[in-house]
UniProtKB/TrEMBL annotation:
InterPro entries: Solute-binding_3/MltF_N
Signal peptide per UniProt: 1-20
Protein origin, superkingdom: Bacteria
Keywords: Signal
Name used for this protein in its record: Solute-binding protein family 3/N-terminal domain-containing protein
Native source organism of the sequence: Aeromonas veronii
Domain annotation Solute-binding protein family 3/N-terminal: ranges: 24-248
Amino acid sequence: MRIWLICHLLLLCWASTARADLSKLEYLTEEYPPYNFSDPQGQPTGLAVDLLQMIWQHSGVPPQPVRILPWARGYYLLTQKPNVVLFSTARTQAREDLFKWVCPIGYSEYILLGRKAQNITLTAFDQMSQYKISAVRSDAAEQLLLNNGMDDNNIIPANRLSQGLKMLLSGRADLLATSKLAGYDAIRELKLNSDDFNVAMVLSAEQLCYAFSRQVPDSEITLFQQGLTRALASEEFRKLQAKYLPVR
């Protein structure tokens, strides 16, 4: 009797996963190299995009469209629509219960970036109130500022990271809240000297994930996580890491 019950439960779990359909989801991302960005032809690429294609392959799903949007727009759609996947999304404590999660894509360190000429160094969160800080709207870095007591009147919102960096350069902002990887990538993209900048403070280190609308069925989350787990264990993923995250 017990064996029959176990087999019955396993069959139900299999049937539930089999009904999951990852092709009904809307896949959104932003410009956040090297995880997700536009190639010279304007097509989505990057470690998280290539990893997503591996997940589809392991899950028996044909390739799906991926749209690149400004982060604030993608984040808004994730909160409003029932079938959205947004990546690469930092899994912060403030966001934990807002979405469903499949992890990890990678990890990101969030910092306050400054200009060396300004010589700003912070040792505590309550020191942030002395400065004007730029951050991308709805980005994890902006949320970390607010969660740690930053007055929103002292936060200068930017639509894109490059815009926030230009605010820092012009003196409109004293500091830029960003992930370390993306911040220094933006510096290179603008052909600036990275030696002219410094990390004024480390805000946090967060896991990067695929975030799903709360209404997405658990069966689809399970199928997606199974695909990710298999992809992360593959030799192909190690090649992706070497391609997009080379050891410097």
